[in-house]
């Protein structure tokens, strides 16, 4: 197995099912292009005469669309930009922070990453979509699920302020988990 000698870019993309690593090799003499997602080869093209262009592939369980744009900057210098669902990685992550909540916690020595997709109220834990039960309570809603033998609940309560909207809180075994910043 040849070592990645033409590795030109590495990105980390946080999706609901986990944080994915995207690596890109670009051989500017051979025109080779290789895309790896989480260490697995997704695209390999040898002897491309056109050194600029775009490679499109999917990432994660939800098959999120991703593309790498290859642009010539000057002479033999190239710029590589990653787009997720048609948005720059930065824009995608900014938008994602508005549509999801993420918590990272440790239970019995195991690390868990819990993600709430606010538009669908889907809950993901370590790459798995969880079975949940929702109920209306006096001050909002509760979404119940379990991780191992731990009971978990995401409480959704109105902030009372239109700008802030709804506040989501993860409670595991009766203790509040602080939200993670990705």
UniProtKB/TrEMBL annotation:
Any one Gene Ontology BP term:
negative regulation of extrinsic apoptotic signaling pathway via death domain receptors
Q: In its keyword annotation, does this UniProt entry include Transferase?
A: no
> Which taxonomic lineage does the organism of this UniProt entry have?
Eukaryota, Metazoa, Chordata, Craniata, Vertebrata
- Give the residue range of the signal peptide: none
User: Predominant location of this chain?
Assistant: cytoplasm
- What InterPro entries does this protein's entry cite? FAIM1, FAIM1_dom_sf
Describe the function of this protein.
Plays a role as an inducible effector molecule that mediates Fas resistance produced by surface Ig engagement in B cells.
Report one GO cellular component. cytoplasm
**Localization per record:** Cytoplasm
- In which family does this protein belong, per the annotation? Belongs to the FAIM1 family.
* Organism of this sequence: Phalacrocorax carbo (Great cormorant)
Q: What is this protein called?
A: Fas apoptotic inhibitory molecule 1
């Amino acid at each position: 197995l040849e070592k990645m000698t033409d590795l030109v870019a590495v990105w980390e993309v946080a999706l609901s099912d986990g944080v994915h690593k995207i690596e890109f090799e670009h051989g500017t003499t051979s025109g080779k292009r290789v895309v790896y997602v989480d260490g697995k080869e997704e695209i390999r093209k040898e002897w491309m005469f056109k050194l600029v262009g775009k490679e499109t592939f999917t990432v994660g369980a939800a098959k999120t669309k991703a593309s790498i744009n290859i642009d010539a900057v000057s002479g033999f210098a190239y710029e590589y930009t990653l787009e997720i669902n048609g948005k720059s990685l930065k824009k995608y992550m900014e938008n994602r922070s508005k549509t999801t909540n993420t918590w990272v916690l440790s239970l019995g020595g195991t690390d868990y990453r819990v993600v709430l997709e606010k538009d669908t109220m889907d809950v993901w834990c370590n790459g798995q979509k969880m079975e949940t039960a929702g109920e209306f309570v006096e001050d909002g809603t509760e979404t119940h699920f379990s991780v191992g033998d731990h009971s978990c609940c995401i409480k959704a309560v109105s902030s009372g302020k239109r700008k802030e909207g709804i506040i989501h809180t993860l409670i595991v075994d009766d203790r509040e988990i602080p939200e993670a910043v990705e």
